């Protein structure tokens, strides 16, 4: 069993008295940092992963307090019988008193002291957004959802391009949207013997991570090694599992009562990478095939966009060999 220990527990005694914890981290879970908190102070977020040791929380909190920053939320996870430490903090600060470059140096010094495996800080109002490319096949429900959320400013990314192994007519809703917003669409036809991965790698070389928005091609180990960055996938999680063509139809015919979707990191082992987000929904005998499929697609859209948002907000950290910590 894993045990979550909040900063408001016994570790609170280590926290500097130079700042006030305004609320628990749970208040902020799933919410974007709001730059309107103060006309002067702006928000930042920091995640930390190292071997567990005495004084980590104190050093991190003192680092923020010493520069006049104030912690708004702090989450800590130390697995039972596993000597590792994870934390995520949300704070506000004055960029005049604590310049962005100095902030990185200050957190890096603490990372070196504790031999951190991971120490990342982001300031959403200063740092560039993550650059991503979207890959998809014939189905475009996940793409449409992401494009609309991006347009509404609810997805903190820059979409550099869309790549598909299916050609789309220029007068379709998706193509008109992409053209209107200046997002390139690359039709890269694939065959069983030629996945054209070198061409895709060239198209995505300047991105920060990739999103497979129902891309029905298997990425090879060579592609993943060549890209060298994270790839996030979405696939149906129909219970029980149905493989092959038309899994929704198979599940509908079998009369399943629960459907789902899973978003995960892509690894060389098919659909077995670390899980980021999962969602489920009940179905019943009252659902026809159309409503059944609609519910399944809706879950996929929600699950994928939530996973991407969590990733961009530094809520996702690797845990062990095939797990994640998601704050």
From TrEMBL:
Q: Which residues form the Formyl transferase N-terminal domain?
A: 131-308
One family from Pfam that matches here is Formyl_trans_N
**Transmembrane portions of the chain:** none
Q: Does the keyword Hydrolase apply?
A: yes
Q: Which UniProt keywords apply?
A: Hydrolase, One-carbon metabolism
Q: Which NCBIfam families match?
A: PRK06027.1 (NF004684)
Q: Which PANTHER family is this protein grouped with?
A: FORMYLTETRAHYDROFOLATE DEFORMYLASE, FORMYLTETRAHYDROFOLATE DEFORMYLASE 1, MITOCHONDRIAL
What is this protein identified as? Formyl transferase N-terminal domain-containing protein
Q: What is the lineage of its organism?
A: Eukaryota, Viridiplantae, Streptophyta, Embryophyta, Tracheophyta
Encoding gene, per UniProt annotation: A06p053770.1_BraROA
């Amino acid at each position: 069993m894993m045990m979550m220990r909040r900063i408001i527990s016994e570790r609170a005694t280590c926290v500097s008295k130079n700042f006030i914890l305004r609320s628990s981290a749970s208040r902020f879970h799933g919410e974007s940092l709001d730059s309107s908190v103060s006309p002067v102070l702006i928000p930042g977020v920091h995640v930390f992963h190292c071997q567990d040791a005495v004084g980590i929380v104190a050093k991190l909190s003192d680092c923020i307090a010493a520069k006049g920053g104030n912690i708004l939320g702090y989450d800590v996870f130390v697995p039972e019988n596993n000597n590792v430490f994870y934390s995520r903090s949300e704070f506000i600060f004055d960029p005049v008193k604590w310049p962005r470059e100095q902030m990185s140096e200050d957190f890096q010094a603490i990372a070196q002291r504790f031999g951190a495996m991971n120490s990342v800080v982001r300031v959403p109002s200063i740092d560039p957004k993550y650059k991503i490319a979207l890959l998809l096949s014939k189905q475009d429900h996940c793409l449409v959802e992401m494009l609309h959320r991006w347009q509404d400013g609810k997805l903190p990314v820059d979409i550099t391009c869309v790549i598909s192994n299916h050609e789309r007519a220029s007068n379709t809703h998706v193509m008109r949207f992409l053209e209107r917003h200046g997002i390139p669409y690359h039709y890269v036809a694939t065959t069983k013997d030629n996945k054209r991965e070198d061409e895709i790698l060239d198209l995505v070389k300047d991105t920060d991570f990739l999103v497979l928005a129902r891309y029905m091609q298997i990425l090879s180990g060579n592609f993943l090694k060549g890209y060298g960055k994270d790839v996030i996938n979405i696939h149906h999680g129909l219970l029980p599992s149905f493989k092959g063509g038309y899994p929704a139809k198979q599940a509908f015919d079998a009369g399943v009562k629960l459907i789902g979707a899973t978003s995960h990191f892509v690894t060389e082992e098919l659909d077995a990478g670390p899980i980021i987000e999962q969602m489920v929904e009940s179905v019943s005998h009252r659902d026809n095939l159309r409503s059944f499929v609609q519910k399944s697609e809706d879950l996929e859209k929600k699950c994928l966009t939530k996973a991407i948002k969590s990733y961009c907000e530094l809520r996702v950290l690797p845990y062990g060999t095939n797990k994640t910590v998601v704050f």
